Design the sequence.
C-alpha cells in the first residue's frame, strides 16, 4: 500500500473536520450535538430536562435525567472518526519519511519541513479534533492549522483596515493555536495606483516562530483581492496580525483590508 497522496490527505482531513464542525453545530444554530459552551443544540437543550421534574420526581427516575447532562459529542465523534484518522496515521507512519512518528509530525513535514511549505495546512477545527482522537497529551502543532480572517460581517476590519484620508483601524489577530493565513489585501473604491504596504506579524516556517514588525507589499490599481508578497517578512511566511497599512502617494482614495486567507483550493467549512 503506497503513502497516501497529499491531495487525498487534505481531502480526507477536510471531510473529518467538516464532520466535527457539523456534529458540534454553530452558535445560533438549532442543529448539531453541541458541546460544553460550544453550539446551542442538543447539548444545551438537555439542560431543559431538569425543569421537567421536581427533585422527588427526578430521584424516582433513577438518575436518568442527570445522565443526559454528560458529554455526548466527544464519544460520538471518537466512535465515528477514530478509525479513519488512526488509519491515516498508520499509513503515514509506515510509509512516510524516516522520523514520522505521528500524523502531526507528518503534517509538520509537509508544512514546515523538508516536505515543502504549507502543503497540508488544516482547518482551525483540527486543533480540537486531533487531541480528541489521540488524547489531550497529544496536541496539534500550531503550524499545522491555518486561521482565516476575511473582512466581512464576522471580522469588520479583517486583520486591519485603511481608508485613505481617514486612517488605519485595527482588526482581529490570529490566535496562538494557529499559524495564520496566506497574506491577502482586499481593495475597494480605489482611485489611482501604487504600492500598498502592510505591517504586522508573520509566522516564519523556517523557524516556526512569530516575527513582529515585518512587511508585505502589493501594487494596487483596481478592486479585488490581491496576494501580498513579502517585503521584510520571511519568505513563505503566513500573516498573523496587522499593525498598519500605508498607501503610496499615487493612490488618492481607496479602502484596504489586510486578511489571512485559507490555502488556495481548500473548501470553506462546514
Sequence:
Amino acid at each position: 500500500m503506497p503513502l497516501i497522496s497529499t491531495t487525498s490527505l487534505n481531502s480526507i482531513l477536510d471531510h473529518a473536520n467538516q464532520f466535527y464542525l457539523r456534529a458540534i453545530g454553530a452558535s445560533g444554530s438549532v442543529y448539531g450535538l453541541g458541546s460544553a459552551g460550544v453550539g446551542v443544540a442538543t447539548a444545551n437543550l438537555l439542560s431543559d430536562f431538569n425543569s421537567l421534574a421536581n427533585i422527588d420526581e427526578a430521584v424516582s427516575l433513577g438518575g436518568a435525567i442527570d445522565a443526559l447532562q454528560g458529554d455526548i459529542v466527544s464519544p460520538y465523534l471518537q466512535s465515528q472518526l477514530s478509525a479513519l484518522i488512526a488509519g491515516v496515521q498508520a499509513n503515514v507512519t509506515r510509509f512516510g519519511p524516516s522520523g514520522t512518528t505521528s500524523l502531526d509530525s507528518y503534517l509538520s513535514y509537509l508544512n514546515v519541513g523538508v516536505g515543502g511549505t504549507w502543503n497540508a495546512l488544516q482547518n482551525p477545527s483540527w486543533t480540537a479534533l486531533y487531541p480528541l482522537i489521540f488524547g489531550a497529551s497529544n496536541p496539534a502543532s500550531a503550524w499545522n492549522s491555518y486561521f482565516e480572517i476575511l473582512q466581512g460581517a464576522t471580522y469588520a476590519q479583517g486583520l486591519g483596515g485603511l481608508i485613505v484620508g481617514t486612517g488605519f483601524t485595527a482588526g482581529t489577530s490570529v490566535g496562538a493555536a494557529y499559524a495564520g493565513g496566506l497574506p491577502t489585501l482586499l481593495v475597494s473604491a480605489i482611485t489611482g495606483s501604487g504600492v500598498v504596504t502592510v505591517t504586522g506579524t508573520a509566522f516564519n516556517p523556517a523557524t516556526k516562530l512569530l516575527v513582529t514588525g515585518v512587511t508585505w507589499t502589493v501594487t494596487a490599481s483596481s478592486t479585488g483581492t490581491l496576494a501580498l508578497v513579502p517585503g521584510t517578512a520571511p519568505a513563505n511566511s503566513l500573516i498573523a496580525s496587522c499593525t498598519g497599512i500605508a498607501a503610496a502617494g499615487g493612490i488618492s482614495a481607496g479602502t484596504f483590508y489586510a486578511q489571512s486567507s485559507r490555502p488556495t483550493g481548500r473548501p470553506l467549512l462546514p
